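Help: read this over?
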Amino acid sequence: MGKNRVKKAGNTNWVMTLLKGRTLLILAVLVIFFSFASPNFFAVNTGLTIAKHVALYGIMGIGMTYVIITGGIDLSVGAVAGLSGMVAGGLINEGLTIAPLGVTVYFGLPWIILISAAVGVLIGWLNGFIITRFNVAPFITTLGTMNIARGLANLRSNGATFSNIVGKEALGNTGFNYLGKSIFGIPAGVIILVLIAIVAACLLKYTPFGWHILAIGGNAKAAKLSGIKVEKNTTLVYMFSGFCSAIVGMISAAQLVAAHPATGEGWEMNAISAAVLGGTSMSGGIGSVGGTIIGAFIIGVINDGMTMCGVSEFWQKVIKGIVVIAAVIVDQFQRNLQAKMALQARNEGK
């Protein structure tokens, strides 16, 4: 009987090890599969394309990771990206017209980036304010701000595209397109992803702010009773998500050298998928930046791999939806298994 118990425990540990490493395993399987399915999968241009997409999914996914860790969700990220891109494009091409004074002000590149990022932070603050002050569910709140942001993006240009957003030397607003270029062969988006990931990972792991949001996701009531400022930290998390989305919107606009109000449609699913595939629990309290980046690679490989194989865009949505559901089911299975193992350990300790 003792041998059976040891054997059963060994099997359980093996399953847990497999579950913890599932993200890397899935990525390896996908890379191997698409390398056979598409002869050009390992081409340099393909790698650069995937890297650019992964940067967008990764940056947005990091912000989403913080939100999900607190037990929330942010459906506005794609719309915020579109709005921030439109703000940047409008400031570059048209400047800011002050009707009462009859003048148009053109800003330098640093100010354009700062204002566009501030738009994302402001919407993030609005999300956090409504959720914490009025106790509105994050799903409903961010669904509402998603529509607000998307509507504002269209109102900015009456639904038109800001094309050729390169600026003019005489106005001092050139250089925005460098956000979409490569530096020493590395896409600028990837460099920005690395910088944001390092900061976000350090904040989450080594600072009181990171410990507090993990505690909030684990049990918000207990966190509040222990002295943690739940409302303040939750609002900061949504502001960070808005900031990440705004950065993604600007990078995307720079890559296309154009800003369109529909940019970012459906990107919230990519952000959620990257976070969940990376091990962030939809129940809150668990998540990591590194895992989300690996999850972003999975989404990027799936999207670009299926496109290269000629898979219909409609089927791609179906497959990604299945992947997200499967990831949540596996996460729940892992949590249940961990709870069972902990209970067994306590019983054996008695």
